[in-house]
Amino acid sequence: MNPDILRERQNATFDIEKLTNILDGGAERTNRRREIREVLVLNDPDFDYGTPTSLPTMILKLREYGISDPVEINWYKSMYWGTGREALGLHYVMFLPTLYTQCDSEQFNKWVPLIIGTYAQTEMGHGTHLRGLETTATFDPATQEFVMHSPTVTSIKWWPGGRNPLFLPLIFLSIPLSASLFDLFLSGFALPTCSGIVIGDIGPKFGFDAVDNGYLKLEHVRIPRENMLMKYAQVKPDGSYVKPLSSKLTYGTMVFIRSLIVGNAGIVLSQCCTIAIRYSAVRHQSEIRAGEAEPQILDYQTQQHKLFPLLATAYAFLFAGQYMIDTYNRISGDINQGDLSEMPELHALSAGLKAFTTWTANTGIEVCRMSCGGHGYSRSSALPDIYVEFTPSCTYEGENTVMMLQTARFLMKSYRQVQAGQQLSGAVSYLNKVHHRVMAPQAVSSQLDLNLNTLVDLYEIRAAMLVELAAQSIQQESARGKCQEDSWNNSTIDLVRASDAHCHYMVLKMFRDKVDQIEDPGVHSVMSTLAHLYAIHGMGNFTGDFLQAGVLTGAQVPSVSKCLKGLLAEVRPSAVLLVDAFDHHDKMLNSVLGRHDGNVYEAMFEWARSSPLNRTEVHESFHKHLKPLQAKL
Ligand SMILES: CC/C=C\C/C=C\C/C=C\C/C=C\CCCCC(=O)SCCNC(=O)CCNC(=O)[C@H](O)C(C)(C)COP(=O)(O)OP(=O)(O)OC[C@H]1O[C@@H](n2cnc3c(N)ncnc32)[C@H](O)[C@@H]1OP(=O)(O)O
Ligand SMILES: Cc1cc2nc3c(=O)[nH]c(=O)nc-3n(C[C@H](O)[C@H](O)[C@H](O)COP(=O)(O)OP(=O)(O)OC[C@H]3O[C@@H](n4cnc5c(N)ncnc54)[C@H](O)[C@@H]3O)c2cc1C
Q1: pTM for the whole structure
Q2: How far apart are CA 462 and CA 473, in angstroms?
Q3: Measuring from atom 46 of ligand 1, which residue has the nearest CA?
Q4: 207: annotated binding-site residue?
Q5: What is the pLDDT of residue 272?
């Protein structure tokens, strides 16, 4: 083991295993995750990663082992495929969950065990604006069929991932009977026997290469009436339409996956922090004091400033992901029982946190890559591949700006309710104080109050202020004679800013609540330090907001920076141990820089030598192209 890494792991001030257990949701979950990793994948003689049979092997193994819990599926897949995506991601995270949540019992029993599918909602002309989707599904009572049709070039289904060229069960979103509503259809087409279908691949993408994203054009293709997913809405044999309790129930799968993406952003950021911090512990470069040995780059304050706030953010997002999934499970359970009262809040929370966490993690991956210098740009680091695979999460499952505006819609509605004298509960209850003006900034002392509860309060006041400013912008636009829609559009910068601040407050609050639950003194101490670092780093990035909210004075601003530097120094001794607690296996991380043993240089040389370009002393292209050319010169 590299001596630097070895030294970093001595004198631990907290129990790493206990922290790993907290991240997994308990020791039993850690044991189960490791069982899946060690027994069901790594030590499975059939484990054949990287071969053409990998995908079918994985599917059969998941069924053989009876793994159906989404989190356990993700554990198995991420061990099997490492940090990359695989062609069936969409089947597991969208197609199956849609069948689970939108099929009636007969359909569920008929389809779920048997098929692999994709989710074809987006069209060439519309991905965000679902009410603009053009694909039609017209019911023909005479034949008890729906006629599926792509009326325009912009209605061609575009992007469905994992498009299977031979058999095409897919979930469709189409406009059946009325433009305002659309429903889900399962369409099993066996190509090429089924006429009226034009299918293909949309062509090379920025990345996401393991997933074949396709296109699908339908020309009056008929499917049985029974293929409409009928848990919430039905078309009866006589053609009558039974509306769902809410037209937004059709959007349920997107809320589910957005909820998953929150925790996934934490996982991806934790992978990158593991790579960058372990590498920074073994990389020596330049000098701090003339004549002395080159220091570990982790001892540069700027390197700590790049990486340690991201380390704190990774923990924050992992805890936010746990909260999000628990909240999703609770509220979707209520929805299943017909109680839709918290559906708007679930939508607003999942939409906002999906955007907030993916934007932050997307930027953070690049900071981790650049903090590793040239070796960070090598594919051997795994960081370029992680970035390429993660960055579309800011676009898919709801483009982030649009998602932030959905959260803003909920915040504005909540603000108006408070103005009308209603008492709010849940995540927006802090807006009650705005109305009663108890949001007045606390007596701001000359010293920064570092109590975590106080910091959460300051973020709450900042969010409330920005919500109020956005609402006032809309009111001012209306007062200038603008219609409601234009008043909204002319305030969308403020609205996104308010949603971002609301999400930032929510994430810090979840972090603080999780820290409060930690009983082990050593783990509590180090997590409290990270939560402080997350809060203070945010105050440094958004100082203007806190000044504008009146919860920070100009005189206190220097102490924010001073406090930040102190916290970076406090985290330094535990940095490698904190990434060890993420428990990312070398085989899954697939990074020469992030190896657990820290033996980077030897591994990098071996990695380079294994490159196809080094298979022969002289590359065949010399003999094929250059040598004949030289002979002519
Ligand atoms: C096992 C796996 C584990 C881990 C995996 C982790 C991560 C996964 C990683 C990768 C996943 C793999 C591949 C991903 C591939 C991506 C697949 C896709 O992209 S599928 C397509 C996704 N498309 C979208 O998300 C479309 C976005 N657009 C919309 O959702 C809607 O058009 C809109 C923007 C919300 C607007 O909808 P609409 O116009 O109908 O609504 P209004 O804005 O007018 O608002 C009206 C009213 O409705 C409420 N509302 C809107 N949406 C919802 C909802 N979903 N739920 C509840 N309520 C909703 C809205 O709040 C308004 O309410 P009101 O204010 O009127 O009370
Ligand atoms: C890798 C990848 C995989 C995908 N897989 C699938 C899949 O399997 N199935 C599927 O159905 N789809 C899939 N998609 C499509 C994806 O869901 C859409 O791309 C996404 O919903 C964004 O919609 P859009 O492309 O129409 O972008 P647009 O909405 O056109 O966004 C373009 C710009 O317009 C802005 N904008 C749009 N509306 C508003 C508004 N109301 N207010 C302010 N600004 C606005 C956006 O902020 C953005 O800046 C995938 C996409 C990617 C990148």
Answers
A1: 0.95
A2: 16
A3: 248
A4: no
A5: 98
